[in-house]
Design a protein that fits this description.
The chain is about 70% helix and about 5% strand. The protein contains 10 helices and 2 strands; from the N terminus they run αααββααααααα. Strand 1 and strand 2 form a beta hairpin.
């Protein structure tokens, strides 16, 4: 369930190579791609990102140097997501040194996801509701932390899609990609049950068309995420 929402800037603001590297890094941070996952074939991934294979290779090289990706040779080879220990520790150190940045990302998430939720409650279709129910079913069936992260992000992406606002969809994906919850650090059983209940409240708000209740449910959910991030950030400090 690789969900790549393109947030690559224009050539005047960021190089194509760096833009692809940033997008793949964000997808890993969000949990779209998790430790042990193999990236799609080069031709397919380059086409989905709208870049050349040479550009993609250079972006992959950047992420390999940063410890996000590693190449494996042989019949079962390819480019795989690493265990992420090195980049995760760097992210923790960076956020510990600039705690205000973490808080600003969360506040931005609240702003854009509240608005997207309100629009979703007014603009959703029956197909949107069916997709959100499918996302809830996926989360109920997860058996590991990596699948939980992927299912959680899929649900949030579905809410954003229902807003019918391309800019909000892009902003939400970008903001979620700035956060980094390593799957090994998640308190799994308790978090899945709590998240399911929070997602259900968001879905019911969208179903009923109550935009304010939906927005409040989204904000409460992100505030819960804030507490979890604080706990992870200072667990070993």
């Amino acid at each position: 369930m690789l969900r790549l929402v393109l947030t690559i800037g224009t050539p005047s603001t960021v190089s194509a190579v760096q833009g692809v590297a940033d997008e793949l890094r964000s997808a890993i941070h969000r949990g779209d791609i998790t430790p042990g996952d193999r990236l799609p074939p080069e031709r397919e991934l380059a086409a989905s990102l709208g870049v050349s294979r040479i550009t993609l290779r250079e972006a992959i090289r950047i992420l390999a140097d940063e410890g996000y990706l590693a190449a494996k040779r042989g019949q079962q080879g390819g480019t795989f997501v690493t265990a992420l220990e090195e980049p995760y520790q760097r992210w923790l150190q960076h956020m510990r040194g600039d705690f205000g940045q973490l808080e600003d990302i969360i506040e931005f998430r609240i702003a854009v996801e509240r608005r997207a939720a309100k629009l979703a409650a007014k603009r959703r279709t029956d197909m949107d509701l069916a997709t959100l129910e499918e996302a809830m079913d996926d989360m109920a069936l997860v058996t590991d932390r990596a699948s939980y992260r992927r299912a959680d992000n899929f649900f949030h992406g579905c809410v954003a899609d229902a807003s019918r606002s391309p800019r909000l969809i892009e902003a939400i994906a970008a903001a979620r990609g700035e956060l980094f919850m390593h799957t090994d650090q998640i308190v799994y059983d308790e978090l899945v049950a709590e998240t399911q209940a929070q997602h259900r409240r968001i879905l019911e708000g969208i179903r009923s068309g109550d935009d304010e209740a939906t927005a409040n449910a989204v904000e409460a959910h992100i505030e819960s995420t804030r507490l979890g991030l604080h706990a992870m950030l200072f667990a070993d400090s």
